[in-house]
Write a structure and sequence with these properties.
This protein has one helix and ten strands; from the N terminus they run H-E-E-E-E-E-E-E-E-E-E. By secondary structure, the protein is of the alpha+beta class. The chain is globular and about 45 Å long. 12% of the residues are buried.
């Protein structure tokens, strides 16, 4: 009986350890902080920019962004953040583009991620992060950067 208990414990400890490692990895790959309806702050009076993010499943998020000038839509894009073959990617598409443009995730921390595509003139790098109640983003090329700050839209 004692031998059976020792065997059971020796099997249980590695199982618990592996489960804990899985939880650690899962939390670092959690982008739920992105989910919601966001409106850009610090923008020209005649413009309003919005981003809406939705979680489809643990490995897939979709976003939609658009800018209104007065009541006209002057820009829009679809975004798809997903994990495939063990790697996260951000894909972005505007109406002018035939296909989504892929950005490889090069950095990921709790509440922050950075994606790059060096084949583009702009943006080469897209960074998103949470800062308190704000969602921030930065689009960067070789010499140009465009910062974004969003506040959550109340329902």
């Amino acid at each position: 009986m004692v031998k059976l208990i020792k065997v059971g414990i020796s099997l249980l400890i590695p199982l618990v350890f592996v489960q804990c490692l899985g939880l650690i990895n899962e939390s670092s790959e959690n982008f739920d902080w992105l989910v919601g309806k966001w409106q850009r702050t610090k923008e020209a009076n005649d413009k309003r920019t919005f981003e809406y993010w939705k979680k489809i499943k643990d490995t897939e998020y979709v976003g939609f962004a658009f800018t209104l000038q007065n009541l006209d839509t002057i820009h829009q894009e679809k975004m798809h953040l997903s994990k495939s073959d063990g790697a996260w990617n951000l894909k972005v598409k505007t109406p002018d583009e035939k296909d989504f443009i892929a950005f490889e995730m090069t950095m990921m921390k709790n509440g922050l991620f950075e994606c790059t595509n060096d084949s583009l003139p702009f943006p080469k790098k897209i960074t998103y992060w949470r800062e308190g109640e704000k969602l921030k983003a930065n689009l960067a090329g070789d010499s140009l950067q465009i910062p974004f700050e969003f506040g959550k839209v109340s329902k």
